[in-house]
Amino acid sequence: MEDRIIMTIQSVLDKRPVITLDSHLLEDLRVDSLDKLMILSALEDEFAITIAEDDFADVVTINDIVMKLKARGFFEGTHSHL
């Protein structure tokens, strides 16, 4: 699942350095507010989920995104809404 998230984000940020779970959105990947919206949209499409933008306002790393999605049970075989 982490690999799918990284690949989805990589597709949005195609001109950025290698993305890992430890990559910081702002410092390492230079993600701005538009990039963040595009990432959320791509994750929604990839996983057939709905993500509230406000729930992801405090994410700092790629791993933070993974943990938020896991905490909401998105990868336990059910589809949910944040």
Written description of the protein model:
By secondary structure, the chain is an all-alpha fold. It has helices at 2-12, 33-47, 62-71. 17% of the residues are buried. The model is unreliable at 78-82 (pLDDT under 50).
Fold topology:
Elements lengths: L1 H11 L20 H15 L14 H10 L11
H/E element order: HHH
**Quaternary state of the chains:** single chain
**What helical percentage do the residues reach?**
40-55%
Overall SS class = mainly alpha
Offer a concise description of the structure.
By secondary structure, the chain is mainly alpha-helical.
List key phrases describing it.
globular, 0% strand, 3 helices, 82 residues, mainly alpha
